[in-house]
Amino acid sequence: MVKYTTTILKFEKQGKKTGWTYIVIPEDIAQELKPGNKKTFRVKGKLDKYAIEALALLPMGDGSFILPLNADIRKGIAKRVGAQLNVQLQEDDNPDPVTSPEFMECLQDEPEALAFFNTLTKGHQNYFLKWIESAKTAPTKAKRIAQSITGLARKHDYGTMIRSNKGK
């Protein structure tokens, strides 16, 4: 477990990452977590007192990594860009896979959507699965499954699918 304090940052203009809120994991700390690694890997631990698990660290090309802070995490830590954050991380070498039996059953009926879904990395598949499984009601879950399958059939990644469904 590594412990350090960092500042919450936000990308202004950074291609697909524009607008992301994140923290930096410096090269020396990343090497302590997973020596010799320069590729994405998953971590667990705490951000202040907020527990995290199975979150991907993304390489930045200079040896450092970033940990994107999605809306749920930002709400959980109750901090904004510029705030200091106490970080405790360790490699999560056995992240629990996210599953959605209903979604997987529906995908079986749409071979093109299933084929595209299977080309996605586990992390990108998990965007769909977590979004579907986070629905609070059955009608919302059904709607998210339908939107996901339609998007996958159109070969949309998660972000593209979400943007195409804005306002629906």
In short:
The protein has helices at 27-33, 71-77, 101-108, 111-119, 122-133, 138-153, 158-164, and strands spanning 2-7, 9-10, 21-25, 41-47, 50-59, 65-68, 84-91. It has 168 residues and is an alpha+beta fold.
Layout of helices and strands, plus pairs?
Blueprint: E1 2-7, E2 9-10, E3 21-25, H1 27-33, E4 41-47, E5 50-59, E6 65-68, H2 71-77, E7 84-91, H3 101-108, H4 111-119, H5 122-133, H6 138-153, H7 158-164
Antiparallel strand pairs: 1-7, 2-3, 3-6, 4-5, 4-7, 5-6
Helix pairs in contact: 4-6, 5-6, 6-7
Describe the structure in your own words.
- This protein is an alpha+beta fold and 168 residues long.
- It folds into two domains: 90 residues, AF2212/PG0164-like (Elongation Factor Tu (Ef-tu), domain 3), CATH 2.40.30; 64 residues, no CATH class.
- Helices cover 39% and strands 25% of the residues.
- It contains seven helices and seven strands.
- A seven-stranded antiparallel sheet has the order 1-7-4-5-6-3-2.
